[in-house]
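Problem 3 from the worked examples.
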Amino acid sequence: MAHEGILLGMGNPLLDISAVVDEEFLHKYGIKLNNAILAEDKHLPMYDELSSKYTVEYIAGGATQNSIKVAQWLLQVPGATSYMGCIGKDKYGEEMKKNSKLAGVNVHYYEDEAAPTGTCAVCVVGGERSLIANLSAANCYKSEHLKRPENWALVEKAKYYYIAGFFLTVSPDSIQLVAEHAAANNKVFMMNLSAPFICEFFKEALDKVLPFMDFVFGNETEARTFAKVHGWETDNVEEIALKISQWPKASGAHKRITVITQGADPVVVAEDGKVKTFPVILLPKEKLVDTNGAGDAFVGGFLSQLVQQKPIEDCVKAGCYASNVIIQRSGCTYPEKPDFA
């Protein structure tokens, strides 16, 4: 049974500003579907344009926070999960606090005095999404916050840790502290490749923390980008997953397991020098609302079973169940109660 505080997440809490747009909008801002990037100056007018020209929805998001909320939803044990990240002292920040508490997650936000709460433009075309994150306050997280006794207590209490690769751009020292604690105490430390730009432009930071990862999550595009930047002469996802699982480890307490999703194609799991594939639940195209949060939901579902020490097959099943629920709704949202068996 999952106990209170068993799973801790750290990441960038962002408010998703989600709208169905058109190809012209994507072209205007030079953005691609199925990609996630950090906003540059040229993208900044996009946020106002979205809310003035399209019907937008505001949904509490951020990759790690999504995964933690989905795990919490499936666990149905109040406070089984905790989360840290940085928000601003503004209405979006208040909204975020309210939303997370309702979800049953024990949030310890660092609140920045100056920067506004981060936002993420979610541009949807034909059910596929493009993400453009304007981190703002999320970029201001400091390891000093993590080290405060009331926050470090969450680290001590947890047995499992999950951090999206996106957090490498914000506070690699916080990640290192948690990773080292996990290795020293035989706990389970997990990360996500998160986006091609993380694999490409934050390669050094990712490589530094990779030895501490007991689970590596990602999708097929991220896996192929990872392989390319490491000079691996293959774009075969199964081979790449295997090579990542065999990367040297900082602690021998746990083997590394790599889990790669491929949209509607089977999930690839590499462990012990072997690869297994698991089919996903196929959804008729007309039922697809948007893919925003699908990968995050998969991880959340997976973690909900992992923290209960269920076999990997069950973890993957729960991941597929959660992502199937989320893609039939706008953003990373879910009904009141799960019906996963």
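Problem 4, a separate protein:
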Amino acid sequence: MVSPLSDLLNLDLSDTKKIIAEYIWIGGSGMDIRSKARTLPGGPVTDPTKLPKWNYDGSSTGQAAGDNSEVILYPQAIFKDPFRKGNNILVMCDAYTPAGDPIPTNNRHKAVKIFEHPNVKSEEPWFGIEQEYTLLKKDVKWPLGWPLGGYPGPQGPYYCAVGADKAFGRDIVDAHYKACLYAGLSIGGANGEVMPGQWEFQISTVVGIGAGDQLWVARYILERITEICGVIVSFDPKPVEGDWNGAAAHTNFSTKSMRKDGGLELIKKAIEKLEVKHKQHIAAYGEGNERRLTGKHETADINSFSWGVANRGASVRVGRDTEREGKGYFEDRRPSSNMDPYLVTSMIAETTLLG
């Protein structure tokens, strides 16, 4: 009798003295997550420098020409594999030419240079990223829970809601939450968002380059879970036009000095620096962001910079707790849901600490 597929997927590989490593990287569009698996000898691996480099066909990802297509993957971060379990691992990689130069789309390499700068490193920059996304029906690419070809009732009842008529896709959200915890990610929470079919998870309090690594792996896990469920996850910043909220990746930031007494004044100075470079940040904060940053639906207008305490209609928000305690963090509300966290986190650090 042939074993059911589920039995084969759950086979225990411990007796083989081998593990499966899933190498993950970012493709040429900047949002297409790619991965492939390889067999490695031995038991648990926690140090990415102990893993072999690998290659892929860059001409098939828009990252190399066909007559010189080899791109090299450098392992950078390791996480437990929630799909294969055991000692199997997920490996976040970045991409280089055979000569060892970072390829043009390798934003991680650029970010590491900023985070390794002594003036940045000494400040221990913390990031927390609120990743919003929308679940779509596979065949029609329309939000989960919405009438086919139609619209649900107006926004209001859906934010953090419960009930079959208000929350659509919770099993996917919970599966993703637990899978991220299993993998070792610093996932801080999850909730339903203002637009029905839209959800959010948070990667909380990660230092420097780790925030980008963790968000990309969390996105990968979400893509895999929705693949299993036959649902599409969209990171489009405005998946449905009209009177509906868009999707963002609000980025919370603090430095060691901001977290100490008197830090609020440093936060204000950092916000002033962000205002000076508003246009440069907007250009790097995600494709299609102009459809979201309209001054409506809890956003500031893309063409102007503003900040305020507890103001979700501002470019940058300072929390009430930070104001009251005179120290803490601020939230950059401009990044869109499809932003590259390597680019956004390093740019915030560069502008506020080096700029």
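Solution to problem 4. The domain at 4-105 is CATH 3.10.20.70 (Ubiquitin-like (UB roll)). The chain has two domains: 4-105, 118-354.
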